[in-house]
Amino acid sequence: MLTHLDSQGRANMVDVTEKAVTSREAVAEALVRMRPETLQLIQDGGHPKGDVFAVARIAGIQAAKKTSDLIPLCHPLMLTSVKVELAAEGTDAVRILARCKLAGQTGVEMEALTAASVAALTIYDMCKAVDRGMVIESVRLLEKLGGKSGAFKVEEPKAGDE
């Protein structure tokens, strides 16, 4: 059984020594809501701090690589791929998708979630001078592949299923 508690109930890092090396992948998302004028400024490339999407993408990638430094008891991982995609959603939001991959003994969910979160925080940081009312929301795991526990994918509600 995997647990972060040892036999005395103290927190420790899970021992994954006996786990098989498998291909693992995780996808996480975050949404940043903002005023339409703020999104337009980003899309037009007229933001005084530069290319907001490019900086947020790099920040997300760097954060994924440093997850074990940020999240206690998280294993340091040798990621083989980190992709951070940013796109406008409607007229007032940016959707961030972070995908992390590796061949290893433990999953990459925390790395994908960290990448999406830090990319969202970077957008906030770069745009706060023009829009302090931005809201970061919907930080969540969308999909996980590989590992002993198998696959996970968020089931989106169908129209009328509310």
From TrEMBL:
Record-annotated Molybdopterin cofactor biosynthesis C (MoaC) domain positions: 13-147
GO molecular function: cyclic pyranopterin monophosphate synthase activity
EC number of this enzyme: 4.6.1.17
SUPFAM superfamilies xrefs: Molybdenum cofactor biosynthesis protein C, MoaC (SSF55040)
Reactions this protein catalyses: (8S)-3',8-cyclo-7,8-dihydroguanosine 5'-triphosphate = cyclic pyranopterin phosphate + diphosphate
Residues noted as binding substrate in the record, renumbered to the chain: 73-75, 110-111
Keyword list, A-Z: Lyase, Molybdenum cofactor biosynthesis
Pathway membership: Cofactor biosynthesis; molybdopterin biosynthesis
Enzymatic class: lyase
Classification via Pfam families: MoaC
Family: Belongs to the MoaC family.
Gene Ontology annotations of biological process type: Mo-molybdopterin cofactor biosynthetic process
Main function: Catalyzes the conversion of (8S)-3',8-cyclo-7,8-dihydroguanosine 5'-triphosphate to cyclic pyranopterin monophosphate (cPMP).
Organism: Pseudomonas cavernicola
Protein name: Cyclic pyranopterin monophosphate synthase
Catalytic-site annotation from UniProt: 125
Subunit organization: Homohexamer; trimer of dimers.
